[in-house]
Amino acid sequence: MIRAARSEDADALARLAGELGYPSTADDMRSRLSRLSDNDAVLVAENDGVVEAWIHVTISLTLQSGASALISGLVVTATRRGAGIGAELVRAAEEWAGERKMTRMRVRTNVDRTRTHAFYERCGYAHKKTSRIYEKSL
């Protein structure tokens, strides 16, 4: 079952973020969820009451290219990868974006995640460009 994430999902969201390489606490997740806007959706895939995956999609507006939907994060628990859950979540995110009149969906992935690249290509996404992310602590 695909549904909107709730604050009581915070433990599962944090556990899954950790599997993706982003250690988080349930409190972190509750705080982040509470700060999202109507331009964001976090959807979860639940099986027998257990959250097995989540996707975060957001409306991104940039001066140079206008509005598009962006998959900001997607993770499926390791034991369920390859079962089609990720593709279901991507379709649900695309539907959410379409309801908001978005005509483009984008996603960024780490260059080392070759399995992820193949997944998005199977979902109909085309490699558009390669870029680098720079970060500075403030």
- Count of beta strands: 5
The biggest sheet, with number of strands, parallel, antiparallel or mixed sense and barrel status, is:
5 strands, mixed
Uncertain runs: none
Strand arrangement, major sheet? 1-2-3-4-5
Our measurement of the CA-to-CA distance between the termini, rounded to an integer number of angstroms, reads 40 Å
CATH superfamily: Gcn5-related N-acetyltransferase (GNAT)
- Strand-residue fraction? 25-35%
Radius of gyration: 15 Å
Structural class: alpha+beta
The CATH class = Alpha Beta
Order of helices and strands: EHHEEEHEH
Account of the protein in words:
By secondary structure, the chain is α+β, with helices and mostly antiparallel strands. It has a single domain, classed as Aminopeptidase (3-Layer(aba) Sandwich), CATH 3.40.630.30. Helices cover 32% and strands 28% of the residues. It has helices at 10-19, 26-35, 85-99, 114-122, and strands at residues 2-4, 40-47, 50-62, 66-76, 105-107. The chain has a five-stranded mixed β-sheet with strand order 1-2-3-4-5. It is globular, with a radius of gyration of 15 Å. 24% of the residues are buried. The mean pLDDT is 95.
List the helices and strands and how they pair.
Elements: E1 2-4, H1 10-19, H2 26-35, E2 40-47, E3 50-62, E4 66-76, H3 85-99, E5 105-107, H4 114-122
Parallel strand pairs: 4-5
Antiparallel strand pairs: 1-2, 2-3, 3-4
